[in-house]
Amino acid sequence: xxxxxxxxxxxAVGNAAAxxxxxxxxxxxxxxxxxxxxxxxxxxxxxxxxxxxxxxKFYAQITTGAPFDVLLSADTETPGRLETEKLAVxxxxxxxxxxxxxxxxxxxxxxxxxxxxxxxxxxRLSIANPRLAPYGAAAQQVMEQLGIWNSSQGRxxxxxxxxxxxxxxxxxxxxxxxxxxSQIRDPGKATSGSFWLVPQALYxxxxxxxxxxxRARDNQAAHRFLAFLRSASAREVIQAxxxxxx
Amino acid sequence: xxxxxxxxxxxxxxxFLLLLxxxxxxxxxxxxxxxxxxxxxxxxxxxxxxxxxxxxxxxxVTMGPSGPVGMATQSIGLGLLPFTFAGLVVGSVxxxxxxxxxxxxxxxxxxxxxxxxxxxxxxAGPWDRFFTVVVPLARQGFVGAAVLxxxxxxxxxxxxxxxGGNIPGATRVLSVALYDHVExxxxxxxxxxAGGMLVFSFVVLLAVYGRARLPSPER
Lengths: 246, 219
What we know:
The model of chain A is unreliable at 10-17 (pLDDT under 50). In chain A, strands 2-1-3-10-4 form a five-stranded mixed beta sheet, with helices on both faces. A five-stranded mixed beta sheet of chain A has the order 7-6-8-5-9. By secondary structure, chain A is an alpha/beta fold. The two termini of chain A are 26 Å apart. Chain A is 38% helix and 21% strand. Chain A contains ten helices and ten strands. Chain A folds into two domains: 2-98 and 206-240, Periplasmic binding protein-like II (D-Maltodextrin-Binding Protein, domain 2); 101-197, D-Maltodextrin-Binding Protein, domain 2. Chain B is built from eleven helices and no strands. Chain B is globular. The longest helix of chain B has 30 residues, at 2-31. Chain B has helices at residues 2-31, 37-49, 52-62, 68-75, 85-111, 114-121, 126-137, 139-154, 158-164, 174-183, 187-213. The mean pLDDT of chain B is 89. Chain B starts with a helix and ends in a 6-residue tail after the last helix. Chain B has a single domain, classed as Orthogonal Bundle (MetI-like fold). Helix content of chain B is 77%, strand content 0%. Chain B is an all-alpha fold. In chain B, 36% of the residues are buried. Chain A binds chain B through residues 54, 56-57, 59-60, 124, 126, 129, 131-132, 156-160, 164, 167-168, 171-174, and chain B through 57, 60-61, 63-66, 70, 80, 82-83, 161-162, 165-167, 179-180, 182-185.
């Protein structure tokens, strides 16, 4: 089945010029996606168009026919749901990154073991909304594991996504926050501020899945982009931005 | 339901402060021949044009610990404004300013010089002239400004999202709660809130535009 479709694709590609691939990218993966797109464009000659936003919003847009070819989701549920609704091509889904959670402060507030959380010596702690964002749900799990979820309620501020959780901290309005490691990790540069890379044992893995959307079933550029995402060179970039890989 | 009450409280406080500060500002804009009239009018109108998230982001930065407003509020012991109800009030006042100032300014301009001069010849002082002559004549302007300021604050989203932090009971207003439901794909609750806001907004606007058609008894 898959070989047949690959052959059909190869035939279709024969007379197709370099095509575009529209990629919907979860907010936390914005920076690596930009780097990856640049490399992919150079290698393949295809053009990429990146849209960043929240996975929930992309889901709503895709169900109403948004012109995306590939979804780089922040979770596994959304691509799974798109598959069952026949909006994503079954069998093309894979985990392109495992997100890592950090507790971060632009100053020197955060120690290497997260003791600042237990001491509760802070006024505002920023997290992404656990109801909406996988990184927010992970932050909640960590705080529950540490037994401080209930006692911290009055001090929590919720960003609508992980980018806003970061913004609350970076503008100094919250002293510290749980964010994605990728947000403070700039390959080749020292990480600013102080942070605690939360041990994986404290939260369920943040698996981020990629999906080929139904409208791109025959889009050669989209297929090549997904293949590129699995390549050794792409994996190197993804890791350099502070993600793990399955 | 906490979100409904919070939103109404926010809109009421913001509208009150807007009428208080917008009235002298609109009066000045309507009467002045100063060269500053253009720039000030433009600044008042800015929130009509700027994306609310831009306004919200600048408020977040200026009210933050290293921003000028944030340093001032901290030095007088108020602490920081973002993520508080007071912070939302400040944001809403900026956001809804043109919706209050512009109808008032238009109403004051429509009053014109003659009734005021007539009152002056009858030895009415400036305050007397304003409250017994201008305010009754500009009544429709006050009603329109109050209703629009209130309604616009109810519908505020971008600014609140940026400076609110989504805290139940303190900063999670209706529009943010609605957004939450949509993002979480809870479309049932989203429809309830969205439908409610739609009906409310329609009724408010109907009240404003329906009234505006009525001939004013003074004219």
